[in-house]
Request: fold
Amino acid sequence: MSQLSSVAMHRSPLFRAAHAILIRVEHTLPRSIYSTLYGASFSLYRTGLAASYRLQQRRLKRSGDLEGVRRGKAVIKAMPYSLVGPSGLEATYEAVHDAIKRGVTGAIVECGIAGGGSSAVMALALRDAGAFRHLWLFDSYEGLPDPTLDDIDPASGGTGAHIRPLPKGSCLGTFEEVEHLMGDVIGVPRDQFTMVKGWFQDSVRPNAETIGEIAVLRLDGDWYESTRTCLDGLYSRLAPGGLLIVDDYHSCFGSHRALNEFLSEQGDTDPAFVNDGCGGVLYVRPGRKHE
Ligand SMILES: C[S@@+](CC[C@H](N)C(=O)[O-])C[C@H]1O[C@@H](n2cnc3c(N)ncnc32)[C@H](O)[C@@H]1O
Reply:
């Protein structure tokens, strides 16, 4: 368990500087100009982040931390396909690694795929652990829906602390792109991953029984309804000791609200998150003693 809580809590100075600059720019410029500029600056920022992560990995290699090096290789491979930063990808890799190590049974499920980077890093974690679990990848493959009133924070009037503008259709990864990534780039045999195209509201419940037990459930759909629908449809399938990751807990008001509301209805009004930092929050379904 120590691995899970220690990983991914550190944000590099480069990340903090870029984040501060983007927030300032967003508050200064009109929304439409910001959206255009955002695309260019985001890819520049990602290039810098990837370079800094590669440097960190070289240092790790010299230190002889073989597990860390393996994890770093997976993150570097998945990073170009993900909107999630290296720390979040590390946390996701580590969650799968931990579930396998503890013998938690069930499939690996992600709802909210975009370009497929987080799903890819989970597939690589399975491979590194020498484990087989079926991967389920739910998405509209048409990008985000619009937020609803449940996503608006009454205090700020906005949808959260995310700096990326999130209009309908954004964060798009097509079915073909993700299928190519998982099958051809990562090399997951086609019968070991299932892609379900459609709105979660229509696609999740009808597939829940076929999925069966879940070892790791990763939710990355940004909005209240997207998060709540997946919790309602899939949380009961999570094995005791299984891991729930909610990526947008700290960045999207609706996602935060959906998880708090849901866990409180489950009787957990003061949830203890294992990794409460980069890459959202990680919650262990109660029921099996944690090592
Ligand atoms: C932030 S992106 C996911 C990022 C991704 N996990 C990664 O590693 O880059 C959010 C994704 O959720 C999907 N999504 C959000 N709400 C949805 C819904 N209600 N039904 C289907 N897909 C949804 C969007 O299509 C988009 O691909």
User: Anything to note?
Assistant: Residues 82-84, 112-115, 117-118, 139-140, 143-145, 171, 173, 199-201, 220-223, 226 surround S-adenosylmethionine (CB under 6 Å). The chain has one domain: 2-284.
